[in-house]
Structure formats: C-alpha cells, structure tokens
Amino acid sequence: MPAHSAPRVLPALGKPLAEVVALLAFTRRVFGAALASVAGRRFPVAETVVQTWYAIRVCTLPALAVSVPFGIILALQVGVLAQEVGAVAFTGAGNTLAVVRQASPLITALMLSGVAGSAICADLGSRRIREEIDAMEVMGLSVVERLVVPRMFAIVAVAVLLNGVVMFFTIITTLSVSVVLQDLPPGSYLASVTTLAQVSDLWLSLAKAAIFAVICALVASYKGLRAERGPTGVGEAVTSAVVTNFVLLFAANFVISQVYSTFAGGPIG
User: Fold this and answer.
1) Where are the transmembrane segments (predicted)?
2) pLDDT tens digit string along 135-164?
3) Cα–Cα distance between 93 and 90 in angstroms, integer?
4) Element spanning 15, H or E
5) What are phi and psi of 139, to 5 degrees?
6) According to the per-residue pLDDT averaged within each range, which of 4-8, 54-58, 195-199, 225-229 is highest?
C-alpha cells in the first residue's frame, strides 16, 4: 500500500469505530436511565403502553404474512431432504426445531427492526429536527428516560409476545404442508417433535427475541436522536438504522446460536 494512502484509510476505519463506541456509550446511558426510573418510581408507564400497542398494531400482520410462506418453504425443503436421507420420521422434529431456534426469533426481529424500529427512528428524528429534544434538555428532562426507555421496554414486550404468535403459525404451516402435500401422518409428525426439541429451545427462542428487541430499540433510538439536516437527514437515519439493525441482528443470532450449541446444544447441539 502506498504511504500516501495511509491517511485516507485511518479516517475510514476511525468513523465506524467511533460509531461503535458511541453506540455502546448510548447503551450504557439507556440501561442506567432504565434502572434510575424504576428505582425512582417514575417509570413512564403510560408512554410504554402507548408504544406497545402501536408496535402490536403495525408488526403483527406483517410478521404473520412472512411466517406463512416461510413455513411452506421450510416444510418443503426439510421434507425433501428427509426423504433423500431416509429420515422421514424426523421431519416434524426438524421443522419444529428450525422454527423455534432460528426462524421465529429472526422473523420477529426483522419485522420489529423494519417496521417498529423505523417508526421509532423517524419519530425521534422528527423530534430532533423540530428542536423538541433540545427543548426537553433545556427544561432539564431526561430524553433517554422519557422517550427511549419506554420504547425499549415496549419493543421487548412485543417481541416476546410476537415471537410466540409467529412460532405457532409457522409450526401450523409446516404441519399442514407436510400432511397435505407430503402425505405424512399427523400423529407421527407431532410425535417426532419431542425427539429433538426440548423446553430449553423455547427459552432460547424467547431470549433471542428479547435480545434482538433491545438491539433494535437501541440502534433505532440512537440513529433517530442523531438525525440532522432536516427531513433528508431523518430519512437517512431511518435507512441507516434498518441496515445496521439487520447486520447486528444476524451477527447476534450467529453468536447466540454458537454459544448455545457449545454449552447446551441438546441432542444435535
């Protein structure tokens, strides 16, 4: 590499690192504000309820719309693979395990980051360019405690609930496809589920959904509060928040799955 190109490389690497450091500092502020609001008995319950209901309204139907075709594709692929390797009896277990461990929390996270996360980022970004955030800071109000904390708790609550709904509909879809299109007996399909799937897989799915929701809320709030340059800046912040969330969610899913498989993988861990 030429010597004169080194000054150009360092700023290019420094900006992403600075963003990571700033996001980690923002995360520490949010959790500190959450503990302070709970300990001080000033937690914004009303705002949390409003944000929870909004996230439920805008995320439920898109998540179900994605879970049904995903379940169809998963059932067909697993069914064909099971027939090729002579493990048709384990089709139900394979489908269920894939849904519980991977598909359900990922579908939930992607819907939350793409729908609820973008709405949070746009809302906070709009407040920033209208100088509402500056007004709150001048009055001595904690922006993180009043605006970010309730949204984070709302997204976590919706993620856990929506994860269960998506899981149910996706499993029902895989069962229907396997029974109708692949002529598998429903009794043997359901009986094979307990062969591989365990209760710990359900807890893993719920934990993934909650962690993904925290990441989604933190990134969306961070990007929204840093929006600049008017409506164009808000649009850029929303785009950046969605892309960053997708990257972090897949990275977090990989890390959590590997750690779980290493220490408590179960029959196929």
Assistant:
1) 61-82, 102-122, 153-182, 202-222, 234-256
2) 988 888 888 999 999 999 999 999 999 999
3) 5
4) helix 6-39
5) -80, 0
6) 54-58
**How is 171-234 classified by DSSP, letter by letter?**
HHHHHHHHHHTS---HHHHHHTHHHH--HHHHHHHHHHHHHHHHHHHHHHHHHHHT--SHHHHH
* Contact by Cβ (8 Å): 158, 116: yes
d(C-alpha 86, C-alpha 90), whole Å: 9
Two tokens, residue 208? 């993934």
Residue 82 contacts residue 90 (beta carbons within 8 Å): yes
Can you tell me which residue has the tokens 């002529």? 183
Helical (H) or strand (E) element with 129: helix 118-129
Instruction: Please give the average per-residue pLDDT across 222-240, as a whole number.
Output: 88
For residue 169, CA distances in Å to 103, 150, 205, 253, 268 come to 12, 28, 15, 21, 24
Q: Are 172 and 222 in contact (CB under 8 A)?
A: no
